[in-house]
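Recall that a protein's primary structure is simply its ordered list of amino acids. Everything else, from secondary elements to tertiary packing, is in principle encoded there. The following example makes that idea concrete.
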Amino acid sequence: MARTMEPLAKKIFKGVVVAELLGFFGAYFLFKKMHGSQDFRQTMNEKFPFILKVYYKSTEMSGMYGIRELDEKKWLESKN
């Protein structure tokens, strides 16, 4: 019985590894896009504000301060 489960276990393990890699690279490219475009951050703020909060928190934890304030300032000016 153990021999018949080995191929299934390998397939499941490979699937988990692929899912982890897709998630990692997806998060990396999303971060990179948000870091490079204030307009994209505004879109994220409108559609997925919780993701933008994570972005702000991670940049502040890495020592880059002021991004949130600059975004809020620009967005307030554009509303007026």
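The chain is about 90% helix and 0% strand. The two ends are 70 Å apart (CA to CA).
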